[in-house]
Give the backbone structure.
Amino acid sequence: MLCLLAMLPIAAFAGGDQADELLATALSGVDGRAHSIDDWRGKIRVVNFWATWCGPCRSEIPLLSAARKEWRGKGVEVIGVAIDGRDDVRAFVDQARINYPVLVAEQQGQTLMQSGGNTMGTLPFTLLLDQRGNIIRRHAGVLDARLLKTWLSDAAVAHAVSVVTGFAATADQPH
């Protein structure tokens, strides 16, 4: 598994494909209950794969927490998917005061990342899903605030257009 910061160029990929495996897979939350990404259907979802031992992953947490605080009331949910053990994740979530839901995928996280388009196993890895679960953005490596804000703004506009017109719109232009 790769944990990269500046070694990979920042890349956002257009999507549009359904994240069926990711949506359907039940994972244990740090709250002790089973959840799936589809529990947040109807919301734009930022799904961030990370690990407690990954420095670049840890550096994204304040950005993701701020995004959740800013966008939660606008139909967006940030969801962390940790690929390491439950005890390590639970302790780290408490220590870092993560304010968004965190699910524990352990080794299954690798398969879920691959189903989302991350064939190299790069961490951190982030997907942006629309309200129906379509992947509209992918990013391998550390997100920056500007990129995340652009993603969320574009997705919110696309959702508003689809509500007004009755047509599904996606934010599929690369940035």
